[in-house]
Design goal:
Blueprint lengths: L11 H4 L7 H12 L8 E3 L8 E6 L2 E7 L6 H16 L6 E5 L4 E5 L12 H17 L10 H14 L9 H13 L8 E3 L8 E3 L4 E3 L6 E3 L3 H9 L4 H12 L5 H23 L19 H10 L7 H20 L3 H10 L1
Antiparallel strand pairs: 1-2, 2-3, 3-5, 4-5, 6-9, 7-8
Length: 349
C-alpha cells in the first residue's frame, strides 16, 4: 500500500488543470492510490451529462481517469453515483474503480481505450447480444440505491418545464396527459426494480477490442428492468429483430406480446425523461420569446440536421434540438393509433 506520507510526482503544469481549491483533495487521492509514483501528462477528456471535469493520465504505462464531480451536485447524489459505479465495477460492467470520495467529489478509475462500436465482431446482432449481456451484468450487480419513483420524477421535471416559459403556454399539456395515462396503466413496482445505468447511449458504451463497458454513472439507480433496454433501442437496436435479440440477451427469455408492449411504453417514458432532463438545462437561459417550434424535429430529421452540419455536433444547439426531438417522439407515440392497445396489454399483464 502507498504510504500516507509519500507524495506523487506531479509538476505545476499538471496540477494547473485542477481548480486551485480542489488540488489538496486531488493530491490526497493520487497519494492514496499511487504513493510517490510519477504521474504522467494529464489531458482533459469529454464528460457525461453533469459536465464533470475528467482528466486522463498514465502511471507506469497504465492509463487512468481522474474525475471531479461538480460542486453543485448534492452530496447524496455524489454518494449514489459513486456507489453505483463501484457496484458496477465489482460486477465487471464498469472500469475498475481505485478511489472515490463523495465528500470531495474525487474519483479515480481505469481508463478504457475505446474502439468504434461498428468494429464489434459479428455485426449489429452480435453487438446487441453483447449489450444485452452487459445490461444483465448490471442488473445482477449488488443493488444500487433507490432514487425514487421514475415516472413521478419525470412528472416533476415536466411540470417545472411546462411552467418555465421555455415554450408557449400549454405546449406540454398533451405530454402531461399522456404521462398520466401511462402512470395509470403502469404502476411502479418498487420490489421489482433492478440496478440500472439509466443512460446507456452510445457515448457511454466503450468497446475495448474484446468486450463492452459502461461509463458515466451519474444517473444510475434502481429502476425498471426495461429502462436500459429501451434506451439501447433508440440507436443500437432499432429493428424488431434486434430488439428481440436484445431482450433475450438481457433478460434470458424470449420476448412475448406482453413484454413487447411493456417495452414500448417504457420507451415512451424514457423519451420523455430525456426531453425533460436535457431541456431543464435551458429553462433559465434568456430568450427573446417562448419557443413555438416544439415539434421541429423527429429522430430522422434530427440525425439529418447533424449529418448535414445544420446542427454542429457537440454544441448546445444539438442538446436543445435533442431535447425537443425527445418530447416530439413521446407526443407522437401517445397519439399513435396503437397506444391505447399497448396500455390495455400492459394493464392486463
Amino acid at each position: 500500500m502507498p504510504s500516507a506520507n509519500e507524495n506523487p510526482a506531479i509538476d505545476a503544469g499538471q496540477i494547473s488543470l485542477i481548480p486551485e481549491h480542489r488540488r489538496d483533495h486531488v493530491m490526497s487521492a493520487l497519494r492514496a492510490v499511487f504513493g510517490a509514483k510519477s504521474i504522467g501528462a494529464m489531458r482533459p477528456i469529454s464528460g457525461g451529462v453533469s459536465g464533470a471535469p475528467i482528466l486522463r493520465f498514465e502511471v507506469g504505462g497504465r492509463a487512468y481517469v481522474l474525475r471531479l464531480e461538480p460542486e453543485r451536485i448534492a452530496l447524496h447524489h455524489r454518494e449514489r453515483h459513486f456507489a453505483c459505479m463501484a457496484s458496477a465495477a465489482a460486477a465487471g460492467a464498469a472500469p475498475a474503480v481505485h478511489y472515490t470520495d463523495a465528500a470531495t467529489g474525487v474519483a479515480i478509475m481505469d481508463c478504457i481505450a475505446g474502439q468504434p462500436l461498428t468494429d464489434y465482431p459479428g455485426g449489429p446482432a452480435a453487438l446487441v447480444r453483447g449489450l444485452g449481456a452487459l445490461i444483465a451484468r448490471v442488473q445482477t450487480s449488488a443493488p444500487f440505491p433507490v432514487a425514487g419513483d421514475f415516472p413521478q420524477s419525470i412528472e416533476t421535471m415536466l411540470t417545472a418545464l411546462n411552467a418555465s416559459g421555455l415554450f408557449v403556454p400549454n405546449a406540454l399539456d398533451r405530454h402531461a396527459e399522456g404521462l398520466a395515462r401511462i402512470r395509470s396503466a403502469l404502476p411502479w413496482d418498487t420490489p421489482a426494480l433492478v440496478s440500472s445505468h439509466n443512460d446507456p447511449n452510445p457515448r457511454n458504451i466503450l468497446f475495448d477490442g474484446n468486450r463492452l463497458w459502461l461509463i458515466d454513472w451519474e444517473l444510475a439507480c434502481r429502476n425498471d428492468p426495461l429502462v436500459d433496454i429501451a434506451i439501447l433501442t433508440f440507436d443500437l437496436a432499432e429493428t424488431t429483430e434486434l430488439e428481440d435479440t436484445l431482450l433475450a440477451a438481457a433478460l434470458g427469455r424470449p420476448a412475448d406480446r406482453a413484454l413487447r408492449a411493456r417495452l414500448a411504453v417504457i420507451k415512451l417514458l424514457t423519451r420523455l425523461f430525456y426531453g425533460c432532463i436535457v431541456l431543464e438545462n435551458f429553462m433559465h437561459s434568456p430568450r427573446d420569446a417562448p419557443d413555438e417550434k416544439l415539434d421541429e424535429y423527429r429522430q430522422s430529421s434530427f440525425r439529418a440536421a447533424i449529418a448535414s452540419g445544420q446542427l454542429a455536433a457537440g454544441s448546445q444547439d444539438v442538446a436543445y434540438a435533442f431535447g425537443k426531438m425527445s418530447l416530439t417522439e413521446f407526443a407522437n407515440g401517445i397519439t399513435a393509433s396503437g397506444f391505447d392497445t399497448l396500455l390495455q396489454i400492459v394493464k392486463q399483464s
